[in-house]
Amino acid sequence: MSSDNKRFGAAGPDPNSRISQKLRELYRSVEQEPVPERFLDLLEQLDQAEESNAAKTDKNSR
Length: 62
Hints:
The protein is mostly helical. The chain has two domains: 1-31; 36-62. The protein contains three helices and no strands. The chain has helices spanning 3-8, 15-31, 37-60. The chain is elongated and about 70 Å long. The model has no long low-confidence stretch (mean pLDDT 84). Pfam families: NepR.
């Protein structure tokens, strides 16, 4: 019996490697999903707020 078999028994390979594989598969599927429109709208609002704030800061520093 190899040291791996002693360590993990007859059940097979390390369960952590199986979990890691499944998590990678899940991550890949989520990674391929489109960004929700609501999230893009929120990012646009944030950009506008930052631009507005930067303009106010520039105006006040003159």
